[in-house]
Write a structure and sequence with these properties.
The chain has 424 residues and is an alpha/beta fold. The protein has eleven helices and 21 strands. Strands 4-3-5-6-7-8-9-14-13 form a nine-stranded mixed sheet, sandwiched between helices. It has a four-stranded antiparallel sheet with strand order 10-11-12-15. Bound molecules: zinc ion.
């Protein structure tokens, strides 16, 4: 464990740290007109109104739109000269979301990342290859700050150029790497095509994957082909970047949220009501230690559930959430059936001969949506087989089209799995 004191706190100690953190955070944001107006509108007269953790439910939600409205720095609660760095995500609607950091915020981020690395079995001196981009997107720098904190040997490869990625991993004896999971099939394809037969990267033991959901079957395929252990890292621009809200440990029994750093709630996305543990809903986070842009009840749009608040076999005491099922806004509705792209992926991977690349195409005409699932597969797999299996697993009958390996479009970053077309 990177920080045993923090990671094994008792429930009572955690509750106390959370209440203290919540009070501190409220006092901090009270001086910022952007937050204060929202709190006052919700009937909060002063930060001292919040006396217990239950009072959290009286506080208003924070949304991605709030971040956009506050662009670039209206949400900052510290003087400009205390800011050392910022990151930004664009999203589909134009105005970006900005997260700015004080020195303590960068330390908090690095601490969370270092805990994630330790959870994955990485320790001082291990070579770690960073495949997310270094730039406005938080992934590259988040890994970098974490490497520094955990004393890993950082290989700052950034994204793209798969042949060079493989070469760096071999030449520097890389033990772990971080990337988006949809990039891994690129690496495997290159290895499979190596002269002299399918190649390997013997030093590689750990893959840490963030920012995309992926199925258990995809995880198994990657683990078997690359002989590595996969970990799900969680965190987003608004919570402070990659790794801030946790990762699974070697027990792989859910993502451990750093409860001394964030309060986790799961709400009904339609009503805002807090749901009991075990029920699926939208994840909501409140930061407890962040300074520049703290979040209070931030709605992530990620669909998930709380799995357990019991101590894990590894000794960590944080609550554990399920792997992310999808985004509230990724949910697809076809003929009255709700489903997520990840469920399609899971179903496809169960068909022998089906490869890792797929597309879901939704075409709407006259109010009726038809779904086609394009997938790459070896000879012998037919569109009929694919369609039939999807009907069994998802409850509706899409059209299934099978393509030879290499025929579907590739991306170096996040894969675009869903394509919507309006034919009216
Ligand atoms: Zn554990």
């Amino acid at each position: 464990m990177f920080n045993p004191t923090a990671e094994t706190m008792s429930r009572d100690e955690l509750a106390k740290a959370q209440l203290d953190g919540l009070k501190t955070t409220l006092r901090r944001v009270w001086g910022n007109p952007f937050y204060r107006t929202r709190l006052e509108k919700a009937g909060i007269g002063s930060p001292e109104d919040v006396k217990s953790l239950d009072d959290l439910r009286r506080l208003p939600f924070l949304t991605k739109d709030d971040f956009r409205e506050a662009y670039p720095l209206a949400m900052s609660c510290v003087p400009r000269e205390e800011l050392l760095e910022f990151h930004m995500s664009s999203g589909s609607t134009g105005t970006p979301v900005v997260m700015a950091y004080t020195k303590n915020d960068l330390n908090q981020w690095a601490e969370c990342m270092a805990r994630c690395f330790a959870m994955a079995g990485l320790s001082k001196g291990d070579a770690f290859q960073i495949m997310p981009t270094f730039g406005l997107f938080n992934g590259g720098f988040g890994c970098y700050h974490g490497c520094r904190k955990a004393d890993l040997f950082c290989v700052p490869a950034s994204s793209g150029n798969t042949e060079r990625q493989i070469r760096l991993m071999r030449d520097f004896g890389v033990k772990g790497f971080c990337s988006v999971v949809s990039y891994v099939p690129r690496i495997i394809e290159k290895l499979d095509a190596e002269p002299g037969g399918p190649g390997d990267i013997p030093s590689l033991k750990v893959g840490i994957f963030g920012s995309e959901t992926f199925s258990d079957e995809m995880r198994r395929r990657i683990e078997n082909r690359l002989h590595i252990e996969c970990f799900d890292i969680y965190g987003m621009t608004e919570t402070g970047g990659i790794g801030t809200t946790g990762q699974d440990c070697k027990c792989h029994c859910g993502i451990q949220v750093f409860e001394d750093q964030y309060i986790t709630e799961v709400i009904n996305p339609a009503t805002g009501e807090v749901l009991p543990d075990g029920e699926f809903g939208e994840l909501v986070f409140t930061s407890l230690t962040r300074e520049a842009m703290p979040i209070i009840r931030y709605r992530t749009h990620d669909v998930c559930r709380i799995l357990s608040r019991e101590k894990c076999n590894c000794g960590r005491t944080s609550l554990r959430i399920d792997r992310i099922t999808g985004r509230t806004d990724d949910m697809l509705i076809v003929k009255g059936v709700n489903f997520y792209p990840r469920q399609v992926e899971q179903a496809l991977m169960e068909i022998p001969g089906v490869k890792d690349e797929f597309q879901i195409i939704l075409e709407t005409k006259g109010g009726i949506t038809e779904v086609t699932v394009n997938v790459e597969a070896e000879g012998g797999v037919t569109g009929h087989t694919v369609a039939k299996h999807l009907r069994e697993r998802l409850g509706f009958l899409p059209k299934g089209d099978v393509f030879p390996v290499g025929a579907l479009p590739r991306s170096e970053g996040k894969a675009k799995r869903v394509i919507k077309r309006n034919l009216d």
